[in-house]
């Protein structure tokens, strides 16, 4: 099951749309999608100098149900990075995506890509060198828009060996 966990204010309409798309794309591997009640913004993870939330800190606060995907409207950073679109526990259970930097007319498709990417990490996939594969690492919106929302054949074959 994928548990969509809104953190702070997130458009319910967007979450419903995302849940339907993830259901269509990936529920054969993960099971269906459930939208959870929103969590309050975790201010203990906020860095006032940076005006960003620490994604690693938030991940640790989320209940580790397989697979929990946090969606947040605030900007995220991780140690050593100016910002991150999201973060996930590799082969773990939790992931988070921020919509803060995905905004624009392509917000929804970007959110689908980054959500699928982080779920891919939870399923054990590493970054992929294929720029069109959803598992390729994106450091800019240009790269997000360049890749597709699909796993390449190599990544797909790794997914299929999971129990
Ligand atoms: Zn990644
Ligand atoms: Zn790939």
Automatic annotation (TrEMBL):
It comes from the Archaea. InterPro entries: MetalloPept_cat_dom_sf, Pept_M54_archaemetzincn, Pept_M54_archaemetzncn_arc/bac. Its cofactor is Zn(2+). CDD domains: Peptidase_M54. Keywords: Hydrolase, Metal-binding, Metalloprotease, Protease, Zinc. One of its GO terms (molecular function) is zinc ion binding. One of its GO terms (biological process) is proteolysis. NCBIfam families: archmetzin (NF033823). This is Archemetzincin. It comes from Geoglobus ahangari.
